[in-house]
Design brief:
It is a single chain. A hairpin with a 2-residue loop joins strand 1 and strand 2. The chain has two domains: 79 residues, no CATH class; 129 residues, no CATH class. It is an alpha+beta fold. Helix content is 56%, strand content 13%. It is elongated and about 95 Å long. The chain has six helices and five strands.
């Protein structure tokens, strides 16, 4: 937005008045007037001319128009790009985030074998629990995106996300158990067996996580 020298002078004059400062005398040969057919208006100390007020109003109107255009552009962008729409309705809440009509809350349990941190999904309007004990944030966010798009918790795509998250959790628990057995045993044969099973559990765990991330991309 371009501001003319006259508008800039008017804004500075009004700012000086509001701050109790004196305004400089107008430059020689430049008297402020609305139009050539109107009489010249000379402002006294601490006073603003109608031309000053008009100039400020013009600047404010242009600023308001500019901000409205920005909002319109964001709304248009949100219709085309889902991630923009999601950003417009996402806000932080205690222990989590709210995305549209649903909240993802972060919980902790030091005794939880699959990791002390897990996630729950709540309906913000009804406060109903949609899902609890979700291991991956990617799962929770993908489910919330589906729910906000109009799908239900028993939708095949949502159920598939839950199934893969359960698989991830189960394989991670197995990996933890095998790791404990490796530490506890002194039998080299058993140790090799547990190490092999540990690696297999970790591989299955990562496979489940990759599937969840793939499914998460489909609901954007």
């Amino acid at each position: 937005m371009t501001v003319t020298p006259e508008e800039r002078d008017a804004m500075q004059r009004l700012r000086n008045i509001m701050e109790g400062k004196s305004n400089p005398e107008p430059k020689t040969g430049r008297l402020v007037m609305a139009e050539s057919t109107h009489e010249i208006e000379l402002a006294g100390p601490g006073q603003a001319t109608s031309a000053d007020v008009s100039a400020m109003a013009a600047v404010l109107n242009r600023l308001n128009s500019l901000s409205n255009h920005v909002v319109d552009d964001m709304i248009t962008e949100s219709v085309v790009h889902g991630n923009v729409a999601e950003a417009l309705v996402t806000e932080r809440v205690n222990n989590g985030v709210k995305v549209g009509r649903y909240q993802i809350l972060v919980k902790e349990d030091a005794l939880r074998t699959a990791g002390k941190q897990f996630y729950s999904i709540y309906n913000s309007l009804t406060n109903d629990t949609i899902a609890d004990d979700i291991s991956l944030y990617e799962t929770a966010l993908a489910v919330v995106r589906y729910l906000n798009s109009g799908r239900f918790a028993n939708d095949p795509a949502v159920r598939k996300l839950f199934e893969h998250d359960d698989a991830y959790t189960s394989h991670r628990v197995d990996a933890v158990q095998f790791k404990k057995r490796i530490v506890a045993t002194r039998d080299p044969v058993k140790k090799d067996l547990y190490e092999s099973r540990l690696q297999a559990s970790m591989d299955r765990c990562m496979d489940a996580k990759r599937l969840i991330k793939t499914l998460a991309k489909e609901c954007r």
